[in-house]
UniProtKB/TrEMBL annotation, chain A:
Taxonomic source organism: Streptomyces subrutilus
Keywords tagged on the record: Oxidoreductase, Pyruvate, Thiamine pyrophosphate
Cofactor or coenzyme needed: thiamine diphosphate
Residue ranges occupied by any Dehydrogenase E1 component domain in the UniProt entry: 67-340
InterPro entries according to UniProt: Alpha-ketoacid_DH_E1_comp, DH_E1, PdhA/BkdA, THDP-binding
Name of the encoding gene: pdhA
PANTHER family cross-referenced by the UniProt entry: 2-OXOISOVALERATE DEHYDROGENASE SUBUNIT ALPHA, MITOCHONDRIAL (PTHR43380)
Gene3D superfamilies reported for this sequence: 3.40.50.970
Name used for this protein in its record: Pyruvate dehydrogenase (Acetyl-transferring) E1 component subunit alpha
GO biological process: branched-chain amino acid catabolic process
Origin superkingdom: Bacteria
GO MF terms held by the record: magnesium ion binding; oxidoreductase activity, acting on the aldehyde or oxo group of donors, disulfide as acceptor
From TrEMBL, chain B:
EC top class named in words: oxidoreductase
Species lineage: Bacteria, Bacillati, Actinomycetota, Actinomycetes, Kitasatosporales
Cofactor(s) needed for function: thiamine diphosphate
EC number: 1.2.4.4
GO process annotations (BP): branched-chain amino acid catabolic process; response to nutrient
Keyword Oxidoreductase: yes
Record's signal peptide: none
Top-level taxon: Bacteria
Gene3D superfamilies from the UniProt entry: 3.40.50.920, 3.40.50.970
Keywords: Oxidoreductase
Pfam family, one: Transket_pyr
Domain Transketolase-like pyrimidine-binding intervals: 19-194
Listed name of the protein: 3-methyl-2-oxobutanoate dehydrogenase (2-methylpropanoyl-transferring)
Length: 377, 342
């Protein structure tokens, strides 16, 4: 099977041919707003779409429960590690919901939730963290690239894929996620630059959650905001309240729309906070105080939306109960599936290194097979 | 069907005429691009300029800038973007311009390019060809003459190929572009302008990746080499005749996969082996080859397997490189040491 024959490779979505590749002409302002953009709790909330917001609420509640369940699974030894997104659910959910089916998501290792919200089976999403394989799914099925562990290295992939789609006449957008620490990496710079020069249909979402493991943003970057970094590349930068799912959805949608229409890339900085440690192998009390964490608790993404929707009569107690029950069901199913030991075939070690196994690998596979047979006796 | 007596059959078959390796490489990309619209050439200077070595000359003009693209000067970006392009079904051919300029792209190469097939259980192979002009002997200044093949061969998931002839330059590059796996295609830049009689018909006869070729038959010892050192070994083999040595010369052509059987068959017959390459000896490909020969030919060997390699030093300045590169004399001196006395 050649690459071209693989399902989902260069799928055709040729409604209208996108504009030709051209230098930047978009009039969108490059400089971000001085304050993070907000919708919830402001007059802008008057134009909220009730159906979309109910969907967001359901996903937020489910996401919060998913985080809790995955953390519990780590404590039980079912996951090697889990980088929690408690407090960041609005970023994860918005990233998934703004994409069309034909678009691609390029998540980092922390963005399991975005992949699940896009439709990835919760168990498959945890394969990497459980340790039975590196990626638990075929990236082409839902158009979700493998969760990237090296920082920012998936960003140029998003640029290349979006560029390739454009070259093939498909109006496909790639949305790539990275953390505040990842913006210091060279690959971040190269991806921004390529995307802007090529006017590639890419949206870069930086989740500024305050810390790269233990290093605070002040020691990470001297830029006024991370959104300002966009200016130097010649693309618009937007600063958004990352705990405000309505604001996140609006800003990311606008960026996706512009990308799809040929307006080129956008850098979105979501200002949010990592409520838990980097992973559950980390001790956050060594580098930050309780007061800071408590202050962010008052700005919780789930509570923010719940308050707004309740005040507007879009959500009632019954609605809250329904979503919490659905989330409990998801968690129970996840717990049950994860408590089953995965069945692994050690011979898989050699199966996917090359299209055609080399002589050396055939020898080593034979060695392992003999060892397995000897163990079996 | 009538037979025309006025149309000579020979006219249909392009006759072999002198061509350089550079021309064969250009032709390989051109033919691949003409046959397969998913083949895209990209890199710094590959478009308008046609590459600093002119290997991509004319491709942008013939296929347009979307198919032969001048990228920003950023090797990680070039290779990283190629990963995304391959994920979408294209076949990128990227140029790294010079051996040591490829190093900024190593994280992309090692963490993503080499592993994508494996981490996705075969769901997402990456058909990327990475062209790396490599090796010394052209009087290049620092960072322009490295032999970096040891880094590539140590990375599982990469195929590593290096042609030494005009015919192979065409045939192996076509095979690399057609491969569904990522291939590091090492171009011996000091052979770019070496000419040979070549016709584009010939490549059909060239064996594919993973096959070594006996370039010269001999009975008294085997020289095992590849890329830029092949002509040196052939010259040494001619010179050795005066000393009474009848040397066989094996051209590996691809380092991964390594055609062990051709090497073993030759060494079992000759009983003596010398591995020759430009890169440093410690941890170099020659160490692996010597180990495999020792494992599989121990009872056939009349002498230890010896190596002639570059010194284990950073690549020297151009005025000193002749002392570093394996030359005919050093090879002959080493062959003389194969007259082993217990």
């Amino acid at each position: 099977m050649t690459v071209q024959e693989l399902p989902g490779a260069g799928a055709s979505h040729r409604s209208t041919p996108p504009p030709a590749w051209r230098p930047r002409t978009d009039a969108a302002p490059l400089l971000p707003d001085p304050e993070p953009y907000r919708v919830l709790g402001t007059g802008a909330a008057d134009r909220l779409d009730p159906v979309l917001m109910r969907r967001c609420y359901a996903e937020l509640v489910r996401g919060r429960r998913y985080n809790a369940q995955a953390t519990a699974l780590t404590r039980q030894g079912r996951l090697a590690v889990y980088p929690s997104t408690v407090g960041q659910e609005a970023c994860e959910i918005a990233a998934a919901l703004v994409l069309e089916e034909r678009d691609w998501l390029f998540p980092s290792y922390r963005d399991t939730l975005a992949a699940v919200a896009r439709g990835l089976d919760p168990v498959q999403a945890l394969t990497l963290l459980r340790g039975d394989w590196h990626t638990g799914y075929d990236p082409r099925e839902l158009r979700i690239a493998p969760l990237s562990t090296p920082l920012a290295t998936q960003l140029p992939h998003a640029v290349g894929l979006a560029h390739a789609a454009r070259l093939r006449g498909d109006d496909v957008v790639a949305l790539a996620m990275v953390g505040d620490g990842g913006t210091s990496e060279g690959d971040f710079h190269e991806a921004m630059n390529f995307a802007a020069v090529w006017q590639a249909p890419v949206v870069f979402l930086v989740q500024n959650n305050g810390f790269a493991i233990s290093v605070p943003l002040a020691k990470q970057s001297a830029a006024p905001t991370l959104a300002h970094k966009a200016v130097g590349y010649g693309m618009p930068g937007r600063l958004v309240d990352g705990n405000d799912v309505a604001a996140m959805h609006e800003v990311l949608s606008e960026a996706v729309r512009r990308a799809r229409a040929g307006g080129g890339p956008t850098l979105v900085e979501a200002v949010t906070y990592r409520m838990e440690a980097h992973t559950n192998a980390d001790d956050a009390t060594r580098y930050r105080g309780d007061a800071e964490v408590e202050a962010w608790k008052a700005h919780d993404p789930v509570a923010l939306l719940e308050r707004e929707l309740t005040a507007r009569g879009i959500l009632d107690e019954e609605g809250v109960r329904v979503e919490r029950e659905a989330a409990e069901e998801m968690a129970a199913a996840l717990r049950e599936a994860m408590n089953a030991d995965p069945v692994l075939d050690p011979m898989d070690l050699f199966a996917h290194v090359y299209a055609e196994q080399t002589g050396r690998l055939r020898e080593q596979a034979a060695l392992l097979r003999a060892e397995l047979e000897a163990e079996g006796e | 069907m009538t037979t025309s007596t006025t149309t000579p059959v020979a006219a249909a078959v392009p006759r072999a005429k002198p061509a350089t390796m550079a021309q064969a490489l250009t032709r390989a990309m051109r033919d691949a691009m003409a046959e397969d619209p998913t083949v895209h050439v990209m890199g710094e200077d590959v478009g308008t300029l046609g590459g600093v070595f002119r290997i991509t000359d004319g491709l942008a003009k013939e296929f347009g800038e979307d198919r032969c693209t001048d990228t920003p000067l950023a090797e990680a970006g070039i290779l990283g973007a190629a990963v995304g392009m391959a994920m979408y079904g294209l076949r990128p051919v990227v140029e790294m311009q010079f051996d040591a300029f490829a190093y900024p792209a190593f994280e992309q190469l090692i963490s993503h390019v080499a592993k994508m097939r494996n981490r996705t259980r075969g769901a997402m192979p990456l058909p990327i060809t990475i062209r790396v002009p490599y090796g010394g002997g052209i009087g290049g200044v620092e960072h322009h003459s490295d032999s970096s093949e040891a880094y590539y061969v140590a990375t599982p998931g990469l195929t590593v190929v290096t042609p030494a002839t005009v015919e192979d330059a065409y045939g192996l590059l076509r095979a690399s572009i057609a491969s569904d796996d990522p291939v590091v295609f090492l171009e011996p830049k000091r052979l770019y302008w070496a000419k040979a009689d070549w016709s584009p018909e010939a490549p059909a006869r060239v064996p594919g990746i993973g096959t070594a070729l006996v370039r010269r038959s001999g009975a008294s010892a085997t020289l095992i080499t590849y890329g830029p050192s092949l002509p040196v070994c052939l010259e040494a083999a001619e010179a050795a005749r005066e000393e009474g040595w009848d040397l066989e010369v094996v051209d590996l052509r691809s380092l991964v996969p390594f055609d062990e059987d051709t090497v073993v068959e030759s060494v079992r017959r000759t009983g003596r082996a010398v591995v020759v390459h430009e890169s440093g000896g410690f941890g170099g490909p020659g160490a692996e080859i010597a180990a495999r020969i020792t494992e599989r030919c121990f009872h056939h060997l009349e002498a230890p397997v010896l190596r002639v390699t570059g010194f284990d030093i950073p690549y020297p300045p151009p005025m000193l490189e002749k002392h570093h590169l394996p030359g005919v004399d050093r090879i002959l001196d080493t062959v003389a040491r194969l007259q082993w006395e217990n």
